[in-house]
Specification:
about 220 residues; Glutaredoxin; 4 helices; 7 strands
């Protein structure tokens, strides 16, 4: 009888010890899992913080660069055409871009182009939309109040019959009549100046075009 009790007691102690061992093992596993999870979470927070800081830094950089139309200067060729020597950015942006030349010949620009299928605008247009038209290979004819009515009317007639061109007033430009393409610009003396035809011939969908064949319709119009 006493032997049976001792056996039962020993078995119970053995089971209790096994349960204790199992509980200790479970606690160790839980501690390991907790430490591992905490490490992963902390690492994730660190990586996330780095990514967020980098993203904010990139956004700041992009925002700063988006407001610039490019850097460089014009170099005048023997033919009188000025070629922009420097960088002309080509990002699509919605904020105002400050161009280093007037009228602009390239740089960051609005995602929507001005219609340039022989379109004549009687009022000033947004430079950012016009630059997008230049990217598509258009020639932009501009004039200010010093240009004669006769020259303006003659140029309007020429533009209306020439695809990939547009025309609008730009009061702040340096000369009465100017012609612009992507990275190219020149002044002409009048509508009958032979350099008008030469500029059209060379730069309407010319080699300077960043996106040849891109649309000049279904854009923005006044």
């Amino acid at each position: 009888m006493g032997s049976a009790k001792n056996t039962t007691s020993a078995q119970r102690k053995a089971r209790i010890e096994e349960m204790r061992k199992a509980e200790r093992a479970r606690e160790r596993r839980n501690r390991i899992l907790t430490i591992t999870a905490s490490t992963v979470i902390v690492a994730g927070l660190v990586v996330g913080g780095v990514v967020l800081v980098k993203s904010q830094s990139d956004d700041s950089s992009t925002s700063a660069s988006d407001s610039k139309g490019g850097s460089g200067h014009f170099v005048t060729g023997k033919d009188g055409v000025e070629t922009w020597s420097g960088t002309l950015a080509r990002n699509h942006v919605t904020k105002t871009v400050k161009y280093p030349m007037e009228p602009p010949v390239g740089g960051n620009h609005n995602p929507v182009w001005m219609n340039c299928n022989g379109d004549v605008y009687g009022k000033a247009i947004n430079n950012m939309n016009a630059v997008h038209s230049l990217e598509h290979g258009a020639v932009w004819v501009t004039y200010n109040s010093k240009a004669s009515d006769a020259d303006v009317k003659a140029l309007e007639a020429k533009v209306k019959k020439t695809p990939y061109t547009l025309m609008s007033p730009v009061e702040d430009q340096k000369d009465p009549i100017m012609l612009s393409a992507w990275g190219k610009q020149r002044t002409v003396t009048s509508s009958s100046d032979p350099n008008v035809d030469k500029f059209f011939s060379e730069f309407v969908q010319g080699k300077q075009t960043p996106e040849p064949g891109a649309a000049c319709t279904n854009g923005l119009s006044q």
